[in-house]
Amino acid sequence: MKKTLLKFIILLTLTSCAMSDNPLLEIPREGYGQPPFDQITLKHYKPALLQAIAKAKKQVNDIINNPNEPTFENTVEALELAGEEVDWIANIFFNLNEAETSDKMQKLAQELSPLLTEYQLYIALNEELFLRVKEVHENTDSDNLTIEQARLLQEMYKGFIRSGAHLSQEDKKTYGKIQERLFVASIEFSRNVLAANKDFTLTITRSQDLKGLPPYLVEMGKEAALARKEQGWVFTLDSPSFTGFMKYCENRTLREKMWKAYSSRCIGKHNNRDLIREMVDLRIQTARILGYETFADYAIETRMAKDALTVQNFLQDLMQKTLPYARKEVAEVQQYARSKDFKGLLMPWDFAFWSEKYREESYHLNEELLKPYFSLENVQAAFFDLVKKLYGLDFRPEPTVPVYHPDVQVFRVLDEDGKFLALLYTDYYPRAGKRGGAWMTVYRRQHFRDNKELRPFVSLVTNITKPTLTTPALLTLDEITTLFHEFGHCLQGVLAEGRYGSLTGTAVARDFVELPSQIIEAWAFEPEFIRTYAIHYKTKEVIPEEYIERIVATRNFLAGYAQVRQLQFGMIDMAWHNITEVPEEDPVRNEEKTLERYQLLTYIPGTAFSPAFTHIFSGAYSAGYYSYKWAEVLGADAFEYFKEEGIYNREVADLFRKHILSRGNIEAPDVLYRKFRGHDPEPDALMRKLFPDQ
């Protein structure tokens, strides 16, 4: 007995020592209170999360067991503030799992995800907790609450209903199991896509096969080969490599190989087809158990669009208006290719190549000509200067703040009165442990605790062209657009103002969250603005006026084709989520059937984007991909206001900051938009932007 007790004491002591050395167990309160990336290792996450969950459950139980009558303060506000440590640890881990992962980290994600889901369900399905929130909801006069408090109460109550708090005990168990499996399945889906991207490389050993590739792509391929200790040149499915290769490589056989590899990801090896069917079925079950006909009905209910029918009509209307433009554009590229002795129909692996040649010849403009004027350093500085003009913001490097990778830089963001607003982490370049694409995320949202304001930590992650041994990072026009888009998201995080983190920053309706990113894109290629940052990295000369005129002229080049492509993504998303039963067909065939009326190029059997469509299967855009086009309408309408008053007009910028960027979800999005613009968005604003001469 004594030996057993002694062993227990020793084990407890060792565990306590290990816990005390865990940098995740306490949220830093000194300085900025940023994540201690330089101290965290994989071994820290699980014990810290377990302890944080135990603490959070105690906080929840204290709310439930409070002998006093439920009030906004002792129930709603208390629940809003509970689980701070859980959010902290989860934000750090899952953000890094996207930006700097490893096989071990992905395996750990599968262990942590069920723990986190179980904790979330412990709150969402807690009947006693729900009854207290319900009592506050039914018995509190909203006139006695601030607008923000009333919004929090309404959103929290609605959140409980939408998470199954009103279900029977048996249905709660079923619902809980569904959500646990969905969480894990989404991680499996993302892991398969990352593995598929890493699996494929195209190695070129003959210099003649590089014909057409600009020097920066050749150098990129050489460096990739050196990194893999291979001979020749290596090209991958990462965006800068894949996109450039498809545009410029004259070897059609190699383009076909590259395109088919990209378009068949997770169809054979690293197969996601069964996961798609399973996840769609689980989402249908989620909707059904909560009383909705389809998952789209459930998901869209809280968004600006309100219902699935509105979204379907929105997508169909835009598609019908755009298809004639897109088909005309494809025919023009086909005719151009034939004029250059190309035989037969353009195939999908031909279109980027020939459309780029057509663009270059029509506008006498190519990326090789332009890229020297668009260094990453200048583009970033231009954005910082733009938001200084519009909002008075100042970005200052913070080299002493710990980062999770050497590529990451940190900036302290200050308001024009010197107030600290945020830390901005920038992570620009592709690498093996980072998923593709670009995104903004947060490690901490802006909120108040103990009447002290905690400002946000915002992260911008992209996969843009890396510097080479001889040149800085030189960007394409598409990469500049992507960068400005994500900067727009970051602005909403940086400028957040509110008391409650669940309502601040980008915690808004999915089809409203893209407005700040869509509108900021509009500045990137305004002539007045281009002149401030398009400076040749070698000669230091400002970009010639004739180049600016050509850039402006080409901004809507293939606008119809690009819009149809985005609408196809939205339609596929709705095809998977606005249904009551899983389609009998294989996911690849189901996608083909959905899009056969809208194909602009020859369909290639055995290819599909659904199996690698991370936005809707492992991201937050299930039944929400339409949001990009929805927000483009908002952005086009909003930018017309700036154009009318001047693109640097401070009064319009102040209105946008006051009612959109800083307000988060404190009021309904349609209300906020009307406060900014003075009227509802005009749907045709986007068509006017894309096809101004029609």
Q: Care to describe what's here?
A:
This protein has 694 residues and is α+β, with helices and mostly antiparallel strands. Among the domains are: 164 residues, Neurolysin, domain 3 (Orthogonal Bundle), CATH 1.10.1370; 64 residues, no CATH class; 252 residues, Neurolysin, domain 3. It has a 5-stranded mixed sheet. A two-stranded antiparallel ribbon has the order 1-2. Helix 14 packs across helix 15. The N and C termini lie far apart (89 Å). 43% of the residues are buried.
What proportion of the residues form beta strands (DSSP E)?
A: 5-15%
What value does the average pLDDT take?
94
Helix vs. strand class: alpha+beta
The protein's oligomeric status is: single chain
CATH topology of the domain at 372-559 and 627-690: Neurolysin, domain 3
Main sheet, how many strands, which sense, barrel?
5 strands, mixed
Major sheet strand order: 3-4-5-9-6
CA distance, first residue to last residue? 89 Å
Task: Give the fraction of residues assigned to helices.
Answer: 55-70%
Per DSSP, the total helix count is 28
Shape type: globular
Low-confidence runs (pLDDT<50, min 5 residues)? 1-18
Record field, number of beta strands: 9
**Cα gyration radius (Å):** 26 Å
| CATH architectural name of the domain at 372-559 and 627-690 | Orthogonal Bundle
CATH class of the domain at 372-559 and 627-690: Mainly Alpha
